[in-house]
Amino acid sequence: MLPFWSLAMNDSNFHFSLKEKSKPILKWAGGKTNLLPQLLKIFPVNFYRYIEPFIGGGAVFLSLTKKIPAIINDYNKEVFNLYMGILENPKEIIKNLDRYAKLYSEEFYYELRKNIPSSNYEKIARTIFLNKTGFNGLYRQNLKGEFNVPFGKRDACPTLYEIENFLKVSERLSSVEIFNEDFENVIDKSGQGDFIYCDPPYEPLSQTSSFNSYNSIGFNQQEQIRLYDSCVRASRRGACIIISNSNSKFILDLYKDFEIRKLFAKRAINSNGKKRGEIEEVLIFICEPNLRKFYFNEVKHYSSNELELSM
Ligand SMILES: C[S@@+](CC[C@H](N)C(=O)[O-])C[C@H]1O[C@@H](n2cnc3c(N)ncnc32)[C@H](O)[C@@H]1O
């Protein structure tokens, strides 16, 4: 890795852009597309490598403009396969999607949900098809680890892909390392010059309120503490970390020694339709004080009052 002072001399600001970004291939619970304008304003302007340990639909990663080195990761095997497949052979996935679009019906949806194809590119097309035609763009597994979202009941098959975007995402992935591991292994790879954006399953605001079951294992408070520990270790090695999470008491207590900003997000996925709308969430900044000048081009520390007003 390059030494810190040579990084600071690189002209590597403005890594993200709303205009040039590619779009997520999957609709994903907790997707960050709506929050991007707020996030990009407060992300670091200078870093050598981008790391996203909970990639999901990848809205943030796909707004990176320059082909700087990056690591993306998700514990979900289907998400991992999707990015690998789009990198290796997007046209083969498109071929299968065109075939599935012609077969669109409720019956076909349940048939494909039940029977996983054996070829890898068909499997990836299945992931996209079920995601786009299932109910509300949810990804949910039962305790056996099987995808169990019901049919979305649209009259006609929705657009499954946009060819230009598909090829753009494929091109973007060519300078990226893609992993299918637990977040801790990926965060442990980081060091000075790395910006890590963590968007884990959120700590529920109440026992019934939030969706955070992306897989059959779930993400409990022990996992949140494990994430906290690995981020603190990464910052001691010189990485800069920003974490999204809910504005829950548990999270505010856990990160009480760090800077916390509140954001307001529009969320469509809530089992109770009346509660859909704006949910308060937080961004946590973890960065050694002597490295802030490099990552953010500033040394300012926010007072808690300023943070709440600043958005
Ligand atoms: C909130 S979503 C990320 C959403 C993403 N930022 C987007 O814009 O679509 C959280 C992701 O964490 C993944 N995940 C859950 N547990 C994990 C673990 N232990 N290690 C790595 N990824 C995990 C889930 O599969 C899910 O894709």
TrEMBL record:
Single GO MF annotation: sequence-specific DNA binding
Transmembrane stretches, start-end: none
PROSITE patterns per record: N6_MTASE
UniProt keywords, alphabetically: Methyltransferase, S-adenosyl-L-methionine, Transferase
Superkingdom per UniProt: Bacteria
Reactions the enzyme catalyzes: a 2'-deoxyadenosine in DNA + S-adenosyl-L-methionine = an N(6)-methyl-2'-deoxyadenosine in DNA + S-adenosyl-L-homocysteine + H(+)
Binding residues annotated for S-adenosyl-L-methionine, in chain numbering: 28, 32, 74, 199
PANTHER family xref list: DNA ADENINE METHYLASE
Full protein name: Site-specific DNA-methyltransferase (adenine-specific)
Organism annotation: Fluviispira multicolorata
